[in-house]
Amino acid sequence: MPFHRLSIPLLLLSALPLLAAERTPWTTSHVHGSPEPPAPYRIERAFPKITFAAPLDAVTIPGTDRLVVVEQHGRLLSIPGDEQRERADLFADLKQYDPETVESYGIAFHPQFATNRLAFVWVNLDLHGKRNREEGTRIVRFHVTEDNPPRLDLMSAQTIFSWLSGGHNGGNVRFGPDGMLYLSTGDAGTPDPPDPFATGQDISDVLSSVLRIDVDHPEAGKAYGIPKDNPFLTTPGARGEVWAYGLRNPWRLSFDSKNGALWVGDVGWELWEMIYRVERGGNYGWSITEGSRQDVRPDRLRGPTPILPPVVAHSHTEAASITGGEVYYGKKLPELNGAYIYGDWQVGTFWALRDGVTHELCRTMLMPGGFGTTPDGELIICDHGGGGLWRLAQNPEAGHPSQFPHKLSETGVFSDVPKQIPAAGVQPYMINSQRWADYATNERWMAVPGNESVSLAKKEFGVIAAGRWVFPTDTVFAKTYSIEMERGDPATRKRLETQILHFDGLQWAAYSYRWNDTQTDADLIPSQGVDAELTIKDAEAPGGIRRQTWRYFSRAECLRCHNMRENFTPGFSFMQLDHPTDLDAGNQLTLLHKLGLAPVEPKAPSPYADRDNPEIRARLYLHANCAPCHRQYGGGAVPSFMNIEAPLAESRLIGAKPVQGDLGLPEARIIAAGDPARSVLLYRMTSAGRGHMPYLGGRLVNPQGVLRVRDWIAGLKSEHDLPESVVRQRENENRALARLIAGDGASLDALLATSSGALSVALAVIDDSLKGDLRAQAIARGSALVDPMRRDLFERFLPAEQRRRVLGPNIEPETLLAQKGNVARGKAVFTALCTACHHAGAEGVDFGPDLTHIASKYDRRNLLEQILQPSKIIDAPWYLTTVTLKNGESVSGFLTSPPGGDVTLKLAGGLQRKIASADVDKMSTQRISLMPEGLLQGLTAEEAAGLLEFASSLK
């Protein structure tokens, strides 16, 4: 299970003694509740006197009123139906079954439990420091004693089924209405690279699947049988246990007790979270796609059945780590009967799905790691973070109008809103490292009701961190963003928005108020957020005018950064507050501690205090702008840790290979020590195109941030094991750049011809080492490049009206076919986009089909169809072949050798790879094109029409 965040239940909070201090109480707050109508449901504690350690499953022992709760780290406890019971009974400690047990995900009782007393338990074994372990995940059968309370008889253990364990283990075991045992398995990989074992579409193993086995009729040599009606039982090379496949990390499966439907929640990768109603033989897309909506590895082989869509796909603007639930048939909430209820482990939201329509039930601070049902059929929520069992209940406030303030002046945070004078008891503060906000600056305040104090979590429990800062109910943080409408003139400063962060005692919520034109007040923006266009006078901008879009983020977008991993208040932390202040002629943290607004004070110099240190400067910038996603369990698609407290040696930054593309950089690394121009991180910071980072936050490139990170990278000790060709290329580019900066423009075009050279030129433009006419030439030629990756480094330097208008994802073929294209322009586009894989006459690389006479095979309309749908028509020589070697390596390309004997593949770049037959583990071929879809999205209509015109001339 991808554990992405920390949570703390209110019942475990314990305030540590604070220094006595005078503080004006804050009594003017009107920030209560929510601007939305109250949710129809709320959560309430079940078994309130019992707390578990990271619970993941809750299952009723058949025929009893006793519930078994599975704790993540291998302990199982049972509780009878008395909700006032003060302790649970030990059902099993799996470390006594096997000392190497490190986790348990679930338990299932046999349908004939009343007569055979059998239970089936999910067990994960220690990986011994490795990422994976053969047979490291087991389904183990135990006999349950008839004692009171009952326990697992650990001496009766028998392993029924086992498979490769790893980061994505899947995560549930349930008996279906047919009496068969179903279990869900993940791809056994870490989040990145996606599907590292290329198993998602491969049914020759049991990963990334829902499996179905018969535990009552074992076959010879097995502790189980394979049902005769399993879909792939007769498919050559397939594992007969596979019932459905193409799942990334199917976290929780369950059956509808009335109609037998099988529901699975599948944890997504980068953009989507999925709910599936799983069918026999179903293919759910991983890792070809993420939820059939987002291409991930379209170049990989596809399974034998078509990809099916999810019933529900939640985007990462509202969800982050889905937990599959249960179909409800209880009596307390009859209006939910027949609804599939599920939640999100990272954002704490719960939904009900019925007849294909999803309804939000409530938002909470819970981390739903699993669901279960009580003996009377009521839903149980296992709060993995807080350790409690919870349930849904009707919200008595539902239907009442919201009293939440819709104007900033109604919040009670300010005594004078136009002058931004805080109300009595509202405390201003500053932080060490600000987030880049497209030239806007901010002011910050915090307000704690009355005389209450910020406290600490006293002890560690489960995944709860001891020492976490805990805020009283109705604590408010406020931040006002302002921008100079004429850069450099403070008198033109205009307030844009005031953001409010509010803790209601159970959860945090974020709101934004947009300032009116008269700057007298601000109005609450809609929950989905809005954009506004700004026109700024800026002498450094092209033409002296900077036009920019200001994003008033949605409430869900705000919580992507204000999340549990950051304790919801990333700016209000020890590291950010620990600096001198003029308010008390001392340290700001000491002042806040005396006021009861910070639970600790500095005892020693901060390790991050040296702001002249290039590493500290750069890492503080990354911490503020990138770490909310790029940290352990942060949910970012790149497995690098950019929070400054992460040791650099463990950050997976220096020397790490990129997993989201190398952007054409030679021997690309996320950070290439000593070589900024080979560093993908810096490239993405410098580019204003689709790959710009940070993903959320400032939309404009921050020149100071870019140079701060560049200087740090340049000062790192360089690598010494680069290929000689890369060393020569970079030496030549560095010499060419030096000549360019010295005034020799002859080397400009050669530099712009490579990604590393273009990045070097862009950095020289940013730091003003390239001046005058050469600077203008670099911008003009760079922004005219056909290759969008390099062009996006320069186009932002042009006035807005001179920038290209690209087609984007919604291309209308008929409109494009009707447009006459320029052949010369099209040839330039073809050279930039196509010759890396194709020959056309004397140009190009011998990898894909030769396009020299392609127009004699396809007319103009069919050529466009081939470009837009490259996998629709493929000739046999260009089917993709994937060879998996016995050492685990996977190689893909076009097969050029005859059947039998050694294997020869033509690889990207036109290289040949010969593989001895003795080294081949398995080989598969798939009818899929390696030509990327969306090739035209980054082109203008004129460029796309020109490309089509040139291709039509190749006869």
Explain this structure to me?
- This protein is an alpha+beta fold.
- The chain has four domains: 97-394, Neuraminidase; 404-599, no CATH class; 648-802, no CATH class; 813-952, SH3 type barrels, CATH 2.30.30.100.
- 15% of the residues lie in helices and 26% in strands.
- It has a six-stranded antiparallel β-sheet with strand order 30-31-34-35-36-37, covered by helices on one side.
- The radius of gyration is 30 Å and the shape is globular.
- It starts with 40 loop residues before the first strand and ends with a helix.
- The model is unreliable at 1-21 (pLDDT under 50).
Can you give me a brief rundown of this structure?
The chain is α+β, with helices and mostly antiparallel strands and 955 residues long.
Characterize the largest beta sheet: strand count, sense, and whether it forms a barrel: 6 strands, antiparallel
From the helix content, strand content and strand pairing, which structural class follows? Answer: alpha+beta
Strand content: 25-35%
Q: Compute the gyration radius: what is it? A: 30 Å
Strand order of the largest sheet: 30-31-34-35-36-37
Low-confidence stretches: 1-21
